[in-house]
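Example 304.
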Amino acid sequence: MSEETALMAQGLKKSYGKVRALRGVDLEVQRGEIFGYLGPNGAGKTTTIRCLLDLIRPDGGTVRVLGIDPQADPVAVQVRTGYLPGELHLDPNMTVEGALRYFNALRGNEADWKFVRQLTERLDLPLKPPIKNLSHGNKQKVGIVQALMHRPELLLLDEPTLGLDPLMQHEVYRLLREAQADGATVFFSSHIMSEVEEVAERVAFIREGVIVEVAETASLINRALRRAHVRFRQPVDMGSLANVPGVTVLSQDDGTSVLLQVEGEMDDLIKALAAFPVSDFETERPSLEEIFLAYYEGDRKEVK
Ligand code: ATP
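Predicted structure in complex with adenosine-5'-triphosphate:
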């Protein structure tokens, strides 16, 4: 583990009775990264985050957070971390402002209140109402603001955009990028692929307590198969397209249109199409979601 490592887990194990929530999780997140932690419900995301903060004790394995062993010094980890739990418990009778002032007091009133106001304004979170009157989305915003308000060097966020509308989701992504620009490391869990695709540079997939893949988001998408839909001005004999390296014909329609699957770069296909009267050419990149779902289709371990 180098100075540049923000988070490290090795062989992390945790069971709840007979449920083996984590079966040997290995993770390494570098300082300054935005790292997405993806997996379906029950995969072990929350359990991992709780172990990182020593909110629960793992049964085995090693954890380091900002170079610190959280079991030896949980306070040292927690004061340097902004944490959004999956379920934030708030006093229902406190106002939003009261709750935020309370969170600030717990950390020695070190937040700049101007920054807190900026956060609440950007997230469209009213300060005056009591927590009990808030919608689920607005409660989630209180959790996001309390995690960000001290400008911590590490953010551990459990499903940060849960319950937020798309506009607010995008505002949260902007806030995470800004935190990164300020030098923070961001580790967040999600089961929404498009979210991870938009904001994370790297992503780990967890499934049934085991990490099945860690990859750069861009490379994961780029190395996946694409689809190309080609339309022709008049019916053509498109038999030769099936011989283009990396190209598979998925379906064709009376000689005037064809749907192809393309592996790798488009160059060979485009050169082959130059011989045809093409009227339209559309390509589709698979979303991270499609790639991710491929992991869940069965035992397929490799993303083509
Ligand atoms: P989600 O996306 O639904 O939040 P997750 O990936 O965060 O899921 P965890 O909450 O870490 O998953 O749960 C992992 C497994 O451990 C699940 O099977 C869950 O039912 C189980 N589990 C979690 N907490 C407890 C607990 N306190 N007692 C018993 N089992 C638990």
